[in-house]
Amino acid sequence: MGASSRALGGGLALERRSPTTEPEYATMGDRLRQARLARGMSLRRLAEVVGVSPSLVSQVETGRAKPSVNTLYALANELGISLDSLLFMDAQPPSAAEAADASGVAAEVGIPHDPVQRAASRSTIRLGSGVVWERLTSESIRNVDFLHVTYEVGGESSPSEAFQRHSGQEWGYVLSGTLTVRIGFDEFVLQPGDAISFDSATPHRLFNADDVPATAVWFTLGRRTVDVARR
Q1: What is the pLDDT of residues 166-177, one digit of tens each?
Q2: Model-level pTM?
Q3: How far is residue 122's CA from residue 228's CA, in Å, rounded to a whole number?
Q4: Residue 18, helix vs strand vs coil
Q5: Strands, E, within the chain: which ranges?
Q6: Which residues neighbour 186 within 8 Å (Cβ) at sequence distance 6 or greater?
Q7: For residue 78, which of 112, 40, 108 has the smallest C-alpha distance?
């Protein structure tokens, strides 16, 4: 995906393609802390539920540590907040009513003020699991992910023993390479020009088992994290 920085130690990096923009981990930590306090949950209790140390949660909240992809999913899930509001810093945090409502697809889907997203200035997220997301809209749209995704060699959306599931629907179109998608007990190997659509509530996993990177355009409507389903 042409991103300039790489995650280390299973962590996560946020950036724009512009070299002047730094990852905003402190802002992400602030939003996590606000969500935790709004739920009346202590730092130690959140760490216990997620399965990490209290010191790690503290470091994430203060912007001194980069969470792994799995930890970030677990934190967002437990606090009832969207990944979009954490990862793309122009996204507006959900209201208390929206955070409490984890069902269905929101009726309101906004349109960016700037209709054009230039290739050179896409917001980019590099995940520690060998996956890169580039946002294809000029600003965050609540409940919508419209992304150019790259699965590097060995890249995966979740570990082999864990599937993801969340509310919403997904559509994908493979541009290059080979992308394998497991949906429930079914496995599909997608080549360039192949497309797929499925209900996101069904446990699913995406990975690149080939020896070249895979790229695709991915659209998700109504994503709200539910959990990670173990095999």
Answers
A1: 778 999 999 999
A2: 0.70
A3: 28
A4: coil
A5: 12-16, 123-127, 131-135, 144-151, 162-176, 179-183, 186-190, 195-199, 204-207, 214-230
A6: none
A7: 40
